[in-house]
Amino acid sequence: MYVKNCWYVAAWNYEVTGKALFKCSIINQPIVIYVKDDGQYVAMEDRCCHRALPLSMGRLEGNDLRCMYHGLKFAPTGQCVEMPGQDRIPPGACVRTFPVVEAHSWVWVWMGDPDKADRELIPECIALETPGLQHRSGHIEYDADYQLINDNLLDFSHLGYVHSASFGTSEDWAYTRPKIVRLERGVRVQRWVTNQASRIAGPENKVDIWGTYDYMLPGVMIMNMRVTPAGSAQLNNMEPPDLTKTATLFSQFSCQAVTPISDTRSRYSFSVLTSDEDAERGLLDAFWANTRQAFDEDRAVIEAQAKSMAMDPARKLIPSVYDSALGQFRWMIEKQAREESSASADGVPG
C-alpha cells in the first residue's frame, strides 16, 4: 500500500549531476531523472511510448531526451517532438512526467496528482551543506517491503539486541518507553535513556542519552541524539534538555528516508551531521563507521524477517507495547492511501 500524494526521496543531489541520466524506481514506477541547462530537474517515465525501451538508455540532446532504439526525442514536458522518418507526430506520443524538486540536499519526486504537488509538504530536513555542521551520507538498498524498514526506525527497543556490537547500546532501550506525539503527517518519538556506558565519556563515566525524532510521511526521519552527563535526565525532569543548563558531550543529527522501489525492494538514504568541533575531534568519523555497521546489522535482520514473512504472509503477528509509533504510522499510510483510492474511484484525481 502506497501514498501517492507525497514527496519521495529519489536520490541525493550529488547523484544527479551534469548530463548524466539517473535511473530509479519509486512505488513500482521506473523513472529517469536529469538536470536541464538552467539547473531545473526533470523526472520522466523510464519507458519510451513507441517500443517501451527504457529512456535511461537514451542520450540527452540539450534539454531533450532521445530514445536510442528508434530515435524518438522527448521534450522535458514528456511530449515527443521528433519521430525520425515521419513529419506527423501522433498526439498520444508522449511519456508521463512527475513534479520534481531539490530540497535539503535530496531530489524529491511527487508520485500523485501533479496539481496537488505542494512543496510545503516536504519535511524540514537538515541539508548536508548546513553551516557549522560536517556530514557523511550514503544509501543502501534492501530486499524488503519499505514498511518493514519504517517499522524498524519507529521502534528503537531493538537497539540493545541488534546494535550492541556497532553502537554499544544496552538492553535498557527495551525497558525505556518513549513519549509519542501525533503530528499532522507523522509522529514524534522522544526518550531519555539514563546511566549508560559510553565510548565518548570513557569507561569510568556514565551518561544520559536524549533522543528525539520526527517520522514523516511517507518515511522520512529527522533526528537529534545528545549524549549528556549522567543526571541530566533528572535535571530536566525527563523533559527535552534545556541546553542552557545541560552539558552536551556529543550531539549528532541524522536525516533518513525510506523509498519503496517495488513491493519487495527499498532504498534507504541517510546522513549523519555533527558540529565542526566534534568532527575535528574525530567523533564524526567514528560515529559514521559505527552507523554503517549498524545499518548492515539492520539490513540483515529486516531481509531475514521479510523472507520469513513471505513464507506465511497471512500469519498473525503478536504486537507489543513498543509497536505504538509504528502502528500509528501504518494507520496514517493506510488512511491516506484509502482516501486517494476512493477519490480516484469517484473520478476525482487522487
From TrEMBL:
PROSITE patterns referenced in this protein's UniProt entry, alphabetically: RIESKE (PS51296)
Source species, domain of life: Bacteria
Signal peptide bounds: none
Residue span(s) of domain Rieske: 7-109
Keywords tagged on the record: 2Fe-2S, Dioxygenase, Iron, Iron-sulfur, Metal-binding, Oxidoreductase
UniProt GO molecular function: 2 iron, 2 sulfur cluster binding; dioxygenase activity; metal ion binding
Pfam families: Rieske (PF00355), VanA_C (PF19112)
Protein name as it appears in the record: Aromatic ring-hydroxylating dioxygenase subunit alpha
Organism of provenance: Noviherbaspirillum saxi
Lineage: Bacteria, Pseudomonadati, Pseudomonadota, Betaproteobacteria, Burkholderiales
